[in-house]
Design a protein that fits this description.
Chains A, B: It is an enzyme of class 1 (oxidoreductase). Chains A, B: Keywords: NAD, Oxidoreductase. Chains A, B: Belongs to the HIBADH-related family. Chains A, B: This is NAD(P)-dependent oxidoreductase. The structure is a homodimer. By secondary structure, the first copy, chain A, is α/β, with parallel strands linked by helices. Chain A has 13 helices and eleven strands. In chain A, strands 3-2-1-4-5-6 form a six-stranded parallel β-sheet, sandwiched between helices. In chain A, helix 11 packs antiparallel against helix 12. The longest helix of chain A is centred in the middle third of the chain and has 29 residues. Chain A is elongated, with a radius of gyration of 20 Å. The mean pLDDT of chain A is 96.
């Protein structure tokens, strides 16, 4: 049994923390929204601050939305870092980009605390079943310490590097492809409509051939059938993630022309009020309807 | 048994015509390169011109490279059209775009000849095994007349519309996605390298998740392992096809920003001398090496 301080119990964090409770671990949870902690149920203990969640923990799990939030819950007012004992491990599973993670790792190292970087892919559905893909990096000993937790949350948790930030880098490659593939599905299906085709019939013909992608299948289905009110993954997530993809590209003097165009489409969607909507609604931008 | 005049016996046309011979059909073949006809083997008959290939045929199969060539073999010097009897069917399987096919169909209709539009996807490998995907459109009776031929060449030949050109339109949607997905794979894997990751290890981690595409698997493999001298599909094919995609987009006043950027990348690759090379070499453009 590991004692886990858990910070960030949103749509992804809650089902992930629930997997740890089911696995017999002790979870002390904190979220800016106290209702989110209560929603975790009987097994969890509630903390009133990041510091309280961190007190006495073996592992501090961080599943907030942004790099600024990750920094704040560790080093801000009533932050977790001062409570962490030497040898404790901070497990960052949010997608915040390599630069933030590297900076946090350096600061935690000063107090003898290790960082494991393990951003996830798979959405709420796989978070709930404990079948996420986690892209793990960090010092060998620290990775070993969190391995039982990763096992409970993921179906695959490959170690992609020894340096904190390597996991974030692999996640950004993943998000570059995902973000471009969603936009390509939207562009391709709206193109079919513009040519006068029945987009759904066209989609059925091509989706299992050389044009196939996970996103053409998954988001394409909601694009041609309509997403209705359901939000499986908000468009705002790709506004954030394409920003991280391009920031890291810029920092490494790498031109990423497709990702750059895809970012403009997500930003256009957000400007049109689609940020909280399912990201399959990006097709409205390509249709010229938003 | 159908008597087939076959025009265009290149890398794709030859194995496709061979499927018809194996299926017991009579094939009279013509190609600008007489050696290509000879290579078809004993069962085939050689014609010295498109007109000779067309004489007495039930179906004239056209598998040339461009729309200009399709027009020329039908209506140019010693062209096939004057030899076609009323009720004959011209079967265009080359990817030439909807505009050319619609124009040819209108001209053939004046002499009572039908056109079936059936561009293919699957490459030489599937052409050889008779497992192509064919996107078929045309008048019902004409489609029925060519059905035994389509059966011999394809594993799937969905009828996507009644108007000649509808098949080409679906193929262009397919090519938009394929062309963007190849470029996205190149951009994503070169991005991984730019971030200091091992691109092959990164590819292995992400290729079966949400980032998955047929092209990330197929071309991605040759991008990270190297294509060597093999040319499974020449980069020049996407120079041509992205041009057709964007011509049809323009004609329908549809902005296709991702396809547009992808076209620029293929054109850059061609400028760098990569036109005849395997299209997985597009990653060299993103690496900044070409």
């Amino acid at each position: 049994m590991t004692q886990v301080g858990w910070i960030g119990l949103g749509a992804m964090g809650r089902p992930m923390a629930a997997r740890l409770l089911d696995g017999g671990h002790r979870v002390v949870g904190y979220d800016v929204d106290p209702a989110a902690v209560a929603a975790l149920g009987d097994g969890a203990e509630a903390a009133a601050s990041p510091a309280e969640a961190a007190a006495g923990c073996d592992v501090l799990a961080v599943m907030v939305a942004t790099g600024a939030q990750a920094d704040d819950v560790l080093f801000g007012n009533r932050g977790a870092a001062p409570e962490l004992r030497p040898g404790a491990v901070v497990l960052i599973m949010a997608t915040v980009g390599p630069a933030v993670v590297q900076a946090i790792a350096a600061r935690l190292a000063e107090q003898g605390v290790h960082l494991v970087d393990a951003p996830v892919s798979g959405g709420v559905a796989r978070a709930t079943t404990g079948e996420l893909l986690m892209m793990v990096s960090g010092p060998e000993e620290a990775v070993a310490a969190v391995a039982p937790l990763l096992d409970a949350m993921s179906s695959r948790a490959p170690v992609v590097g020894a340096a904190p930030g390597d996991g974030q880098k692999v996640k950004l490659v993943n998000q570059l492809l995902c973000g471009v593939h969603i936009a390509a599905a939207a562009e391709g299906l709206a193109y079919a409509e513009a040519l006068g085709l029945d987009a759904e019939a066209c989609w059925e013909v091509i989706r299992h051939g050389a044009a196939a992608s996970f996103m053409l299948d998954d988001r394409g289905s909601r694009m041609v059938h309509g997403a209705g009110e359901q939000v499986k993954s908000a468009l705002d997530i790709f506004v954030k993630d394409m920003g991280l993809v391009l920031a890291a590209a810029r920092e490494n003097v790498y031109p990423a022309p497709l990702a750059s165009v895809a970012e403009q489409l997500y930003l256009t969607g957000r400007r049109a009020g689609l940020g909280p909507a399912d990201d399959s609604n990006l097709i409205e931008v390509l249709r010229g309807k938003r």
